[in-house]
Amino acid sequence: MNDERTTLPEEATSDPVAEGRFTHTELTLALRRPHRIVDFVLGRPDRLARNLVEDAGIPLLALVLLVAGIVFAVPFGAVPPLGEFWKIAVLFTGSVLICYPCLHVFGSYLGFGLSAGQNLVVALLITGTAGIFSFGLAPIIWFIDLTTEADPGAAVTPAHIATIFLCVCLLMGIIQVGRCLFAIREAARLAPAFRQLLGLWLVLLVFITYRMARWLDLL
Amino acid sequence: MVRCLVATVAAAAVYGFSCGSVHSFGLAARNLVKFPLLILVTTAVSALGWCMFSAFLARGLDARAVMKLSLTTFRDVSVLLASLSPITLFLGLTIDKPLSTERLAEYPLFLGLNVAFIALCGTVALVRQARLLLRRHDLGLARSLMITHAWLAVCLVVGGQCAWYLRPYYGLAFMENLPFAEGTAPDFRGATSFFEAVYHLVAPPT
User: Which of A88, A113, B61, B188 is the most buried if burial means most Cβ atoms within 10 Å?
Assistant: First the structure.
């Protein structure tokens, strides 16, 4: 196994628009004030990419993403039609954690050189983003359920809409990983072979998430 | 923001009143409440979703700016519609009233015109919003369009369901004792939500 750590040097030609990585203070502050997590996770893929590429603040960043994936997913699960607060957190975070070992092991085996922490951040970025989007869609699904009295046999029920919303959340998570990997030049350099592995891993993740959704009676 | 909200409520009420005139003064009076309610509920329920999509698509567009832009768009739509309300009121009072479900007379024309009015005003307001995003927030054309479309999608999902719940706004003149809102009652095809009604348009139930 390749145990190298990818700590690519800062280049003079790096993206001039991109700002520096998230500092320890910023990440700690985000944990104390969760509303800042939204901006960190959704709005700053360039800075996330810097932390990732420079292998800096990874444990704290992983914690922030884990918190985002769990805490922000609670409202969508808690409101009808699901009505069980833990299910969405388990759906997204559980699926990613199940799939994470193979991303790291295959990545190391094929010599991409990302540390376990870096791979974990890539994986948790999906759950963090999906969790935050589920938070934004929670009032909408609650409202739809409140204003619909559908028979179980109806063509479209709030549960169907909730499923579509969850698909959107997962899709946004996947898109965010892509944005992060293309956000700065150094991160894009990681890409060619790693992108292929990640693409295959995402297919696996979608399949496991689907199985998890069935197991949780969400489908 | 308060002035914007007041203008939205007032303009929506004016347009709502003119729409209800096709049925009766009673329905028109109810619409004074229902149209502003439709906009306020849609805004409240959509707000978090808009903020998430904006945070995702545009750095530097904070929650306050998002709410301001959204409220401005709704105000624009409402004011544009209110400017058409004299026409709607005139038509509502003068069209050939429907006599039965088989003889709808000019009622479909009235409905069609109002759908066209709403589509026109919505489009104009959205184009203006996209231009504002371009100019004030320097987001670029592609990003401005993406944000506008994301907002529109959230708005359609929430606004569609809210409008469904609060129906009717127009009403066939011969139908009496219309409820304030049909709520969760199924429509004539059995649809119990906006989404099921749209689905039934694509695949009518047998």
Answer: A88
The two three-digit tokens of residue A31, written as one number: 């944990």
Instruction: Check whether A193 has a pLDDT greater than 80.
Output: no
Task: Say whether the peptide bond before residue B36 is cis (omega within 30 degrees of 0).
Answer: no
| B138-194 pLDDT tens trace | 778 888 888 888 888 998 999 999 999 998 988 888 888 888 898 888 887 888 899
Per DSSP, the three-state class of B121 is: helix
Interface test with B, best of A37, A38, A40, A42 (most B CBs within 10 A): A42
The answer to whether the beta carbons of residues A58 and A125 sit under 8 Å apart is no
Tokens of B113: 């015109």
Residues of A in contact with B161 (CB under 8 A): 143-144, 147-148
- Chain B environment of A156 (Cβ under 8 Å): 191, 193, 195-196, 198-199
Q: Which of residues 145-184 of B touch A (CB under 8 A)?
A: 154, 157-158, 161-162, 164-165, 183-184
Chain pair A-B, CB pairs under 8 angstroms: 92
State how far the Cα of A158 lies from the Cα of B187, in Å rounded to an integer. Answer: 17
ipTM surpassing 0.85: no
User: What would the pLDDT profile of A169-184 be if each residue is shown by its tens digit?
Assistant: 999 999 999 998 888 7
Residues making up chain A, counted from first to last: 219
pTM: 0.82
In chain A, which residues have their Cβ closer than 8 Å to the Cβ of B51?
38, 136
Between CA B5 and CA A194 the distance in angstroms is 50
